[in-house]
Model the fold of this input.
Amino acid sequence: MQFGILVAPILGGIIGYITNDIAIKMLFRPRNPIYIGKFRVPFTPGLIPQQKDRVARSIGNVISTQLLDAETIKSTVVSESTVNTIYQKLEETIKQFETDTRTVKEFACQFAEPDKIEMSVYGLARSVSNFIMSKILEADIGTEIVKKAIDGITGKLGGGMMGSMIGGDLAAQIEDKLGSIINQKITEEAPGIIESELLKFGDNIMRTRLCDIYDKYRDKIPEIIEKIIELYKKIVGENIKKIISAIDIAEIVYKKVAEFDAAELEKMIFGIMKKELRAIVYLGALLGFLLGFVNVLLL
Done:
């Protein structure tokens, strides 16, 4: 009699265990549709293989909007721990140059051919020279020089006849004509001079040893690193949404998950949720056992 009381709960537990185990397996299997003639057997393929594209899209959307959204990534990449790590890495990297006897050019040759480096230096000198020239011409240096000269002369002459003669319309004409001549000469002569000096400066830098540069700016290294960190935080803070939009995390995740075949997807999900899925099976056994026991009591 006592054994008979246990039969129903035990059977209920076995049935609950088996049904939940089958239900979980049916999420992934069969992996392909099964046909009897032209009739496709219901629930084939399994739910996840059948809806793999939609599942992949949903996973991508959840990850991009809930887990890896712009604010989350921003708060992580500019967090105190991240910034401290970057600071330490920069400090360690720069510290390596303390005993590095290579020249700047020898160091740069690790990343580019010597002729390309020389062309880059020349191109940079030309660009800087053009920029300086544009600022000089915008400032109308020739006119300013002449104006200062006339003001100085009239100031020395005072308010007498000579001062009055040089002032007024005559001064304006002198400023205009002489200023134009000076500006023209600057335009003709200055670019070559500026570019030549910049190339000399660039050549000196290229021949300077890394350890000498380190020694020269040793005291300013912390300040330089701080400025790099501030620039990093500014760039990330102002452009993180554009960066995330360009990366399109949702699409990357979707394509990656969609590439998985049913077996890989099953392995991945079971690898992540194995304990949880087994818990569901055991919970089914427990509920089956309890319902069987309740059924015995009611009878």
The longest strand covers residues 35-36. Residues 159-167 have pLDDT under 50 and may be disordered. The chain has 14 helices and two strands.
